Amino acid sequence: MTGESLLTADGLHVSFPGRHGGPPARAVDGVDLEIGRGEIVALVGESGCGKTTLARALLGLVRPAHGRISYRGTPLDYGVRGLKAYRRRAQLVLQDPRGALNPRHTVYDAVAEGLRIHRVGGDEHAAVTDALSRAGLRPPERFLLRYPHELSGGQLQRVVIAGALVLAPELIVADEPVASLDASVRGEILALLLRLRAELGLSALVVTHDLGLAWNIADRVAVMYLGRIVESGPVGEVLTAPRHPYTRALLSVLPESALPPVVLAGEPPDPSRIPGGCRFHVRCPVLASGEAERAGIAERCRTEEIAVLTGPGAACHRAGPTPTP
């Protein structure tokens, strides 16, 4: 990482209409996030916490109600031309490669599709074969005329990655990139992403529910709960000394974790009815165990909202003041 910012989100809010005319669902409810050049950031949390909505907003696929997204220091242009130019620089890699690829298109056509949409000139065949080779499908000529049903899950994911690489992006947003793959293939795809960062200087946002994956691939991790980032920082610091009880609970279920197992009560609250105070307090084991009461912070947990994280730290009353970057 160079230390130079590539993509930033400031005070981002994304809402969806509520059911039956009820209050809106605050899927992303005040998020600050930064991705540096050549940096891999893992966005971690349970299903329904807002990770995918945040990722889609960062790609310009969902327009935020409030807040700003900036690319290379310039606010995102939501006009047709502006978005088209941006999406050439920022590419999405989806979780399900079989669903992402047209079963009637050959591998060649699938990878060349981006070149044709963006009307990129030059030698199309050379660009496609180079992208396939970089994605680990070698020799690429073996795959050009094959169809998705003829490939394994790992090969399909490499085709999807090649389809992103062919446009020479600066940023890849990978939404659960190995969730649908066998364990034996996951490591290969993660190693590929690391190699692409080393060779091409790519930045990446990896959306995942798996903190173990974050440990293996990320430089920084941002833990999301109920529309907000509740802890962030360098991956080694967050995952070895978590300060937020939600992060501790996620870590405790990993097979290699030294933390005692933590079972969170219930499900995350409805994002259209976010509780007052700390939004995690209704499930917080620190509050439930009486530890917060003994520390004299229980009432604050129930009634005092915590400010949006603007840097490394934890959004938790017990964690104390957020350290400066």
Automatic annotation (TrEMBL):
The keyword ATP-binding applies. Residues 1-23 are annotated as: Disordered. The keyword Transport applies. It holds the Pfam family oligo_HPY. Keywords: ATP-binding, Nucleotide-binding, Transport. Transmembrane segments: none annotated. One of its GO terms (molecular function) is ATP binding. Residues 7-251 form the ABC transporter domain. Belongs to the ABC transporter superfamily. This is ABC transporter ATP-binding protein.
